[in-house]
Every structure is written in structure tokens, then in C-alpha cells.
Amino acid sequence: MCHVIVTCRSMLWTLLSIVVAFAELIAFMSADWLIGKAKPSSAEEVDNRTGGSQEPYHPTLGIYGRCTRISHMQLSRRDTLCGPYAETFSEIASGFWQATAIFLAMGIMILCAVAFVSVFTMCVQSIMKKSIFNVCGLLQGIAGLFLILVFIIYPTGWGCQKGINYCGLCASAYKLGDCSLGWAFYTAIGGTVLTFICAVFSAQAEIATSSDKVQEEIEEGKNLICLL
In which compartments does the protein localize (predicted)? Predict the structure, then answer.
């Protein structure tokens, strides 16, 4: 008989697992890992001749994507174009960034799988006498290790040609040059920290769903068990 067991700790772990997976996925897809040095647009140059002023824009660069501004003849129209600069995996700007993409993708796949499974832990708490919470926590720990490798490898690619184009000649491995780190980088770091928190908290979720109070309610014949 299937027992639906919902506790505060198990629900919190499930929600955090989903949030972590989405955070890392959004960061991976974003082009805002590096914010490039300010570049004036052609529209700005025209305005300067007439005494006007336009704020310079900052192009952004991701692992495989980028955002840049395209200026049109009309001064009031400037479009920001975002998209992948690499059509194939081999076109990613640096071998280090290719490795970054691999490890980040592996970590995200594990986190997404755990997030999917976590939804069903309300009904199924073990498989083949193994706690799903403990197995998922172990997988989240492995995903966290992959994500740590991302932050070790990624900065070594800052000195690639595309990095220099965006960040200036001073850019090199672990040196940003004229660039700064974008929100996607910090989102990925925050997601990594939460990944390890989830891995640890999975044990608490397992304890909550197998507590004496839960067992008492199961013995009373209840199929839906909600504990605060």
C-alpha cells in the first residue's frame, strides 16, 4: 500500500532540489558570465558630434553565448542581440570552456534527475531497501563536485582570444582584465552552495519521513500523513 508522507523537512528538500536544478540550468544557458569592457556604439559617436551623450554599453560573454548591441541608423533604436557564438561544441572559444561545459552539463543532468525523483518521494521513500533520500543526497554531492570543477577550470579560459576581445589585452588565466563577473556566474556559485546544502539536508528528510510519529500513523491505517 502506498503511503503519502509529507513533512516540512522533506518538502523543503524537494523544493530546494528543484530550485538548485533550475538555477544551474539558467546560469548555463545565460550569456552573462562575463561583462565586457564598455564599448561606444556608432550612435554614440554621432551624438557626440552634436553635443549629445550616450552611455556606453557592456557586451556580455557566456560559455557558448554572447550578447552585443547592434546600432541602427536611427539614434533612438539600438538592439541587443543575444545568441550562441558557437554553432558546434568544437567552436567554443577555449578548450577549458569546453571542459567547463561538459562538467556543468553533467552536474545539471544529475540535479535535474534528482529534482524529478524528489517529487515522487512523497509516495515512494525507498527502492530495493535503499532510501531514495540517501541515494539522491549522494548524487547531489557528486553533482556538487562536478560544479566545483567548473569554477576551477572556467577562469583558466579567460585568456583565450575571445576573452581578450571582450576583456582587453590584460586578460589571462584567472585575470579578468577589463571584465567583471556577471550574474550568471554568481547564480552558478549560489546553486553550487545550495547543492551541498541539499546533499546534507537529504539525510534530515529521510529521518523525518521514517520517524516514530510517521510509523505510528502508518500503524493507525492512515494513507495520507502530514507532519509539521
Answer: Membrane
